Amino acid sequence: MWFRSGAGLLCCLIAATSSHATPTDDNALWPLLERLQGDVQQLLTVTPSEAVPDTLGPGCADPAPHDYHALAFEAEANKEARDLGLELRGGYILDDARGRSVGQSAYLELSWDLLEEGRRENLIRARSLQHSAHLARLEADRARLDDQYACRRETRVRQMRQLRSSLLARRGELLRPLVQAVRRGYLTGYRHLDGLLEVEGELAVTEHELRGLRGLRVDGRPPRNPPHPAAMDLYLPAILKAIERDPLPALSAALERARLSQSSRFRDQNKLRVFVRADADRLSDDLDSGGMAAGVRFRLPLTKPGDRDLQLRLLAADADYQRQLHTRLRRTREAYRELREQAERVQRQQYRVLRANERVRRSLTDRRLYPAEADLVAAVSRTQDLIDAAIEQVRAEEELQRRLVKVMQRAELPLIPAYLKPLGEADFNYRGRSGERAIYLWSGDIDRHAPAVLVAFLKAKGIRQVMLSTGRRLDTARRAAFVREATHAGIGIEHLFGNNSWVEPDNHAKAVSRIRRTAPEGVIHLDVEPQALADFKQRQDDYLDQFDALTRAVRAALKPEQSLHLSLPVWWPADRYAVLARDADRLVLMAYGQPAADRIARRLQPILALVPAERLALALRPADFDNEWQLEQAIEKLRALTGIQRFALHGVDAYLGMAGKQP
């Protein structure tokens, strides 16, 4: 890591931004720090399309063909197969080499070789060449796979470098105002030159690397955000098993044995030739001296050739196959050990990013809640640490990508999803709490607590969804301020309607009209509780039928993209939940008054038998638990017992009052 720690820069900033900085300087830096934190989070968030399926990046164009050798062998095999062994031979002979006309003769012969150098040998040679062509094509496929890996590795590395250049640009944005602040301190006599050189040096190194990565002039503008691929590990047992079961090496060995066997068959030196010949003797007085002749020539060596060399070559082919298999397995294991070492570095770096981000979050939260006590020096130093940690994470992931490709190249296998397992990512919403979290907020909650305080608390507790009351008593301006703060913080809003009288059939149209008018967009959450009515026990079936009719009416009035959620008790007949699940996207089961996770899980079993856990959420009341640790333990146990992953909390005041809360 070439970035130094923030200690030296912090000292420079202390002098430059203490008594010599103006409020305007602070007001300009705080929004910059908040934006840089958001940029880092956005850059390091894995792009959904860049998750598991194509972890090596987009495909590459096919490289230059590797099968020329195979094509050449096939062409030669076809030529040998077409060669029938027929030859046309002829000659003209002078009896006296000095040119005296002692006698002359000529002949023309059509011959057909059947064994060595003939038809049989040509067919054997053609089959051997076909085996060689098949072997060459297998080798070409391996070379093509290797080239594809190399190409995709370079494509992904370029993408990671673009990501690193984006982070470096943010580092430059942070350093430039600091350089100006320290330079002002130096020129006004409050700083020495070495302090200015230190900060300027950091900026110069940042811009130099940025120019090298982008090949562009540094103009202060951050580049377009590239996608961030998921960091992946490999499942080694599956890869090793695939290597052992790979049929191609065994096929290569079988082809090599067949090629050797075929080659040995045309070395037996047995010859058989059938011929027809016409002879002519022009100078002879005997008119019958020329004529036609037909015959057979053969050659049969009396010494039988041995096949010891063939046996040894076949044994060598088998030994090569076993050696290559063991070498392939060994090299794959060695490459995977390197991958695991790098994966550990990536995980450590991800947690370093999360720690740095949490420190920045606390600084920015202090600024919003306690402006007079906010520490700008600490906030700048923490933001620098966050950016530096993010850059080092991208460096580590880039090297992880190289090592992953190396494993697959050594394994000589195509990459499939079964070999991949996510390494994890820097989840900036992680708060040390399991499951997805939501909370009910009523008009009194909004009145008692400032929107900024509520949002800061919800973020600290990992609350990502708010069921926000739309009651008439709620101050609309205060509600709008809270919605703005929550939306900016990435917290989703559900429009909560809780009028129990809506269950009456005469009020269904009124309910639909109110929902359309108040919340024409977004998630609609009905907390209509007929069980709270005085005569519910006497009219339970009627009320539940009416509630079902209300749900259908609201569902029909919503836009297709809108979701409908229902808050329900856990003690209704189980078949009622199955009916309601047909129209509602989610059922939030209110398990209040009982802190024992085992009992809650038993109560939920009939419902889980009819409604999938993915369609359910479980609402708990913090006031039912002695402390937050007991609440968290109950949630973890309920996740394990029921499979439900979404939890809602009812009672923000009790939750705020629990020990261990933090801004």
Structure description:
It is a single chain. The chain has 663 residues and is of the alpha/beta class. Helix content is 55%, strand content 13%. The strands form 3 sheets. The protein has an 8-stranded parallel beta barrel. Strands 1-2-4-5 form a 4-stranded antiparallel beta sheet, with no helix packed on it. α3 packs antiparallel against α4. The two termini are 32 Å apart. The relative contact order is 0.09. The N terminus is likely disordered.
**How many strands, what sense, and barrel or not for the largest sheet?**
8 strands, parallel, barrel
Q: What general form does the structure show?
A: elongated
Strand order, sheet with most strands: 7-8-9-10-11-12-13-14
The whole-number mean of residue pLDDT values reads 83
Number of helices: 18
Spatial gap, N to C terminus: 32 Å
Low-confidence spans: pLDDT under 50, at least 5 residues? 1-7, 17-24, 216-220
